[in-house]
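TICKET: design request
STATUS: open
ATTACHED STRUCTURE:
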């Protein structure tokens, strides 16, 4: 038993020595740091040419491959990287700016499933996006399905569809359900259109936010000092990085609530555009099929002046299938994931690229498990949010009160059942009243009242 215990102790000592050698050994040639610095400008190569000196100002003293000049370079680079990685990536800002420029085209294509011959629809969309809340309440909703169907017909080479007010009145039951759906989608688009410039303003202000000098020193210690121990292949421990980042970004995360709520509402709005795309495609196809069927009646065809041999339904089906993926993905407009956590999860964003391994990571002084806590890391962070960001977030807070109406917009499917013309679209018929019947039980058609301004009927 004694021999076995001695053997076991010897094995433990050898393993410990091997780990110590792996974690503590510094190559006298400092090959890793030399190779790393050789990729930098000549000034930094000259800095490295000096003999390693102690005590260093940031990294631990003792065996080291760094000079104070290299530490200075690490500080400058970390300061720049912290701003660029944690606060804002310029491509994100460009994508948000592009969303503002593209939203009218996106909504137009989503409503028509066509990239050409949609001038009427684009005009309606552009006007709607800039309307006041009062103006939205006074619009004539019937012109939306009329203009959109005219554009769809023209894009498929069909002329003179819905070319008179009598024809439009005859097709009312197929048009009105589409109108309700289209206006709801445009209300969502209008809110997104208002939100994008506010998001852009906050993102621009994030470029001017800073952290304290003490924070940068701690970031250098956690993320760069491993290179001074010839361990450039070892990433910092993520828990260690998180404890530092939470303190360094505390002044920004403290004002994040309104922003994160705002981004959540953008995400909800984009979800509803996705839902609209799925529901609307079927509703639009059903409406066109019903209109084409209605036009097979000679009197209706004469009234509308439409040659049913054009087979608009089949043409639209092929066109919609071909363009569906191209026009109905919200990522074509804006990917809100680039906005999430920009304020509320700065620490996670900053430390995401670092090691999740518990043992083989840099813990601030050596390669090994990080066993400390936030109490062990003393950081002075007296930085405050800039006045510009404060003002931009105040606008976000006010807009959230208006933006939350997105929660009340419901996108529902449409069912067409128009055996008899009605004053209301069939999907909202009052079941308590029902249809009137004559003494012999036959249905009595109701009078249709529909007035459309003839100026709305554009010539194709």
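STATUS: resolved
RESOLUTION: sequence designed for all positions
ATTACHED SEQUENCE:
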């Amino acid at each position: 038993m004694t021999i076995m215990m001695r053997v076991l102790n010897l094995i433990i000592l050898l393993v410990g020595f091997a780990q110590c050698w792996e974690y503590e050994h510094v190559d006298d040639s400092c090959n890793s740091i030399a190779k790393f610095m050789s990729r930098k400008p000549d000034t930094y190569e000259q800095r490295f040419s000096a003999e390693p000196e102690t005590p260093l100002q940031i990294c631990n003293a003792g065996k080291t491959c760094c000079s104070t000049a290299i530490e200075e370079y690490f500080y400058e680079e970390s300061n720049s990287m912290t701003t660029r990685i944690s606060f804002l990536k310029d491509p994100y800002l460009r994508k948000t700016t592009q969303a503002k420029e593209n939203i009218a085209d996106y909504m137009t294509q989503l409503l028509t499933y066509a990239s050409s011959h949609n001038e009427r629809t684009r005009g309606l969309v552009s006007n709607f996006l800039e309307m006041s809340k009062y103006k939205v309440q006074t619009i004539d909703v019937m012109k939306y399905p009329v203009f959109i169907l005219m554009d769809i017909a023209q894009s498929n080479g069909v002329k003179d569809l819905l070319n008179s007010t009598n024809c439009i009145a005859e097709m009312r039951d197929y048009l009105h359900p589409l109108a309700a759906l289209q206006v709801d989608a445009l209300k969502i688009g209008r809110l997104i259109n208002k939100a994008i410039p506010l998001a852009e303003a906050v993102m621009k202000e994030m470029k001017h936010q800073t952290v304290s000098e003490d924070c940068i020193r701690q970031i250098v210690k956690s993320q760069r000092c491993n290179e001074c121990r010839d361990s450039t292949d070892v990433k910092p421990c993520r828990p260690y990085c998180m404890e530092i980042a939470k303190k360094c970004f505390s002044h920004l995360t403290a004002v994040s609530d309104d922003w994160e709520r705002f981004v959540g509402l953008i995400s909800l709005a984009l979800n509803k555009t996705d839902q609209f795309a799925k529901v609307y495609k079927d509703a639009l196809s059903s409406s066109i099929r019903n209109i084409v069927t209605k036009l097979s009646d000679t009197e209706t065809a004469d009234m509308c002046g439409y040659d049913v041999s054009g087979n608009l339904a089949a043409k639209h089906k092929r066109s919609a299938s071909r363009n569906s993926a191209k026009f109905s993905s919200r990522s074509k407009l804006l990917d809100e994931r680039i906005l999430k956590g920009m304020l509320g999860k700065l620490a996670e964003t900053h430390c995401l690229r670092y090691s999740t391994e518990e043992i083989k990571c840099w813990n601030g002084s050596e390669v090994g498990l990080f066993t400390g806590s936030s109490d062990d890391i003393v950081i002075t962070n007296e930085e405050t949010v800039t006045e510009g960001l404060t003002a931009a977030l105040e606008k976000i807070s006010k807009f959230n009160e208006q933006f939350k109406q997105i929660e009340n917009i419901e996108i529902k499917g449409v069912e067409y059942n128009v055996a008899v013309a009605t004053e209301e679209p069939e999907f909202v018929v009052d079941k308590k009243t029902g249809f009137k019947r004559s003494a012999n039980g036959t249905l009595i058609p109701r009078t249709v009242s529909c007035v459309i301004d003839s100026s709305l009927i554009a010539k194709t």
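CLOSING REMARK: The chain has 18 helices and no strands. The CA atoms of residues 157 and 310 lie 8 Å apart.
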